[in-house]
Amino acid sequence: MSPQLIVTDLDRTLLNADHDLDVHTIETFQALAERGHHLAIASGRHYRDILPLRERLGVPAHIISTNGAYLHGPDDAVLATQHVPEDLARELIALERPPGMRLNLYRDDDWLIDAPAPELLALHAHTGFGYRVAEPFEFDGIGVGKVLFIGEPASLAAIEEVVEARHGPALHLTYSLPGSLEIMAGGVNKGTALARLLERLGLPAEACMAFGDNLNDTEMLDLAGQAFVMANAHPELPGRLPRATRIGHHDEAAVSHTLRRHFFD
Question: Which domain holds residue 257?
Answer without folding.
Answer: 5-81+188-263
